[in-house]
Write a sequence for this structure.
């Protein structure tokens, strides 16, 4: 069975299960991301989960009553637990605690969530979250193996700092990454065992270089020219490519995001540094220029902080052009499949189309950054893909959706066209 998800999750019925881990606070954001894909989302919480986040929060975010008890005659009179199990296309448990994993691995049905999981034919996924020592315990690892045998897809866990102060493997994946991995699961036949990363490995063996975030062009030791890019779009693309098996180098301007799992991140500040870092990673099979690279930098950078003059005269800065990174990559004799972005505030497709030709790109992602709620800094985006087919510019509109979902769709589109 393939899940009815393409291109996003619109109309898919997702039951989000939440168990008793500190990562439950992230489940609110996950519920919001799932809703934004157009999915129908209902939430079931274990008793312990309610100590970390209230059912009311999830009810407000999903617009549906939250179920917490198997023995609730009123709720059962609405949609009984068996009906709920049948209603679900996907059951996603995030976070899944060590205890819940143990109960599910052994077929317990001692609360609503475990009972639903026994009664369902839905695709079942879980994002484990626990202390690193608990994750490494042979009992938990055996339960994880057993759950995979039973057809569960395990998303993560992630490595890093933990709420308890430990460092290691056991953190719940970020909601954006869970969503991307959920999308990648759509092709997996139910019952086929899944590894910790999704199975859809169509970029296996490919080298991908992606730029993300802004650049900063120094004016003096304390000031710089920059823009509002947060890096979210580029990081989502890097996560999507890594999850599909690519070896990804992410050349990043200054942002506050954490590095997606399995991605090699190179931090830079200026456009010149970004170009040098990109060239150090070539040749590659696919280059995606998502960074908002400053077109100009100061002709000279003051050694000391610029001082105001006493009069009311303004200040004139002399700027010079920065190298064009994506055009430089596309002009190489060993050029990869080259994808650019175009951030525009007017005449979107005209300007993006001219960048597609002028920079000799294989594909351009046109982004109207004047629209409310998309583009710079937001969690969502909407773009139009433009590319040449038989000398004609061809277009495909991708509506507003979470950047993680959009990245997966853009990568789908690229994969179909990669030589
Ligand atoms: O980072 P987020 O907050 O998630 O926001 C995402 C985004 C809006 C930054 C992203 O979707 C986007 O549109 N990125 C491109 C921003 C941009 O600089 O567009 P541009 O039209 O100025 O540049 C066109 C292309 O040339 C881009 O691929 C850019 O990376 C590249 N370029 C531009 C100038 C330069 N000197 N070198 C380049 O490689």
């Amino acid at each position: 069975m393939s899940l009815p998800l393409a291109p996003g999750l619109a109309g898919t019925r997702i039951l989000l299960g939440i168990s008793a881990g500190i990562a439950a606070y992230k489940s609110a954001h996950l519920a919001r991301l799932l809703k934004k894909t157009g999915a129908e989302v209902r939430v079931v919480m274990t008793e312990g989960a309610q100590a970390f986040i209230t059912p009311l929060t999830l009810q407000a975010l999903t617009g549906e009553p939250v179920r917490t008890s198997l023995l609730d005659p009123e709720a059962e009179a609405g949609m009984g637990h068996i009906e709920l199990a049948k209603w679900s296309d996907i059951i996603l448990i995030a976070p899944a605690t060590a205890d819940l994993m143990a109960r599910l691995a052994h077929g317990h049905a001692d609360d609503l969530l475990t009972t639903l999981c026994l009664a369902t034919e839905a695709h079942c996924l879980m994002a484990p979250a626990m202390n690193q020592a608990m994750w490494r315990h042979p009992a938990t690892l055996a339960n994880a193996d057993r759950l995979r045998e039973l057809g569960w897809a395990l998303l993560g866990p992630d490595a890093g700092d933990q709420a308890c102060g430990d460092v290691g493997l056991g953190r719940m994946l970020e909601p954006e990454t869970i969503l991307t991995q959920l999308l990648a699961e759509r092709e997996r036949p139910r019952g086929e065992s899944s590894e910790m990363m999704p199975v859809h490995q169509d970029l296996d063996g490919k080298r991908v270089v992606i730029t993300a975030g802004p650049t900063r062009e120094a004016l003096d030791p304390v000031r710089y020219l920059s823009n509002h890019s947060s890096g979210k779009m580029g990081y989502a693309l890097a996560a999507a490519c890594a999850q599909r098996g690519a070896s990804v180098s992410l050349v990043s301007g200054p942002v506050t995001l954490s590095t997606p799992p399995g991605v090699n991140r190179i931090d830079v500040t200026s456009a010149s540094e970004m170009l040098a870092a990109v060239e150090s990673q070539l040749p590659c099979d696919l280059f995606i220029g998502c960074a908002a690279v400053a077109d100009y930098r100061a002709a000279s950078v003051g050694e000391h902080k610029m001082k105001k003059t006493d009069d009311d005269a303004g200040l004139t800065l002399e700027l010079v052009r920065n190298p064009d990174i994506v055009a430089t990559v596309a002009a190489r004799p060993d050029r990869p499949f080259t994808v650019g972005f175009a951030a525009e505030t007017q005449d979107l497709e005209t300007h993006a189309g001219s960048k597609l030709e002028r920079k000799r790109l294989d594909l351009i992602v046109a982004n109207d950054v004047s629209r409310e709620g998309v583009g710079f800094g937001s969690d969502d985006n909407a773009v139009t893909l433009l590319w040449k087919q038989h000398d004609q510019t061809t277009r495909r509109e991708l509506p507003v959706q979470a950047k993680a979902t959009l990245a997966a769709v853009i990568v789908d589109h690229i994969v179909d066209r990669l030589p």
